[in-house]
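Please go through this chain and its backbone structure tokens and walk me through the local backbone shapes. Keep your notes short.
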Amino acid sequence: VTITGNVTITGNVTITGNVTITGNVTITGNVTITGNVTITGNVTITGNVTITGNVTITGNVTITGNVTITGNVTLTGNVTITDNVTLTGNVTITGNVTITDNVTITGNVTLTGNVTITDNVTITGNVTLTGNVTITGNVTLTGNVTITGNVTITGNVAITGNEALTDNVTITDNVAITGNEALTDNVTITDNVALTDNIVLTDNVTLIR
């Protein structure tokens, strides 16, 4: 199935197979797409939408509202994920990435670029965050967690498992980090931060109360 142009998919729709959708794409309603799925352009996915398989979405991407995407998932570009969205599997998100408001991501998760994670977000599994990363407000990261770059973590954040935080990291205000922790290279920790279990602090680490 190849669909090109100004594309709107609405209602009780099921699409299965090798699916390519290109252009100004809006998917909304009770829509199920299964198979090798490629969506490119200005993409808005909203409503009760389920996408399963090898899924690649590229461009200006907005995903919101009771959306489930499962499988090998690659999202690239200006990506906004918000409001009851579940991503599961091998998930790679690259670009200007905003994740907020009741979002769950599970599996092998890689987020790269300008990444903002805020407000009731849970990410679980093998988690790699790289770039300019801001994490704030009721966020839980669990598993093998690697965070590298210009990183700010603040406000009711829980990170649990095997964690490596490297390179210009600021942690402040009600943050709990538990497990095997390695904090390296220009790390500042201040204001109600709890580090628990096996902790290694290396290279320009500042603890402020």
Notes: The chain has a mean pLDDT of 91. The radius of gyration is 18 Å.
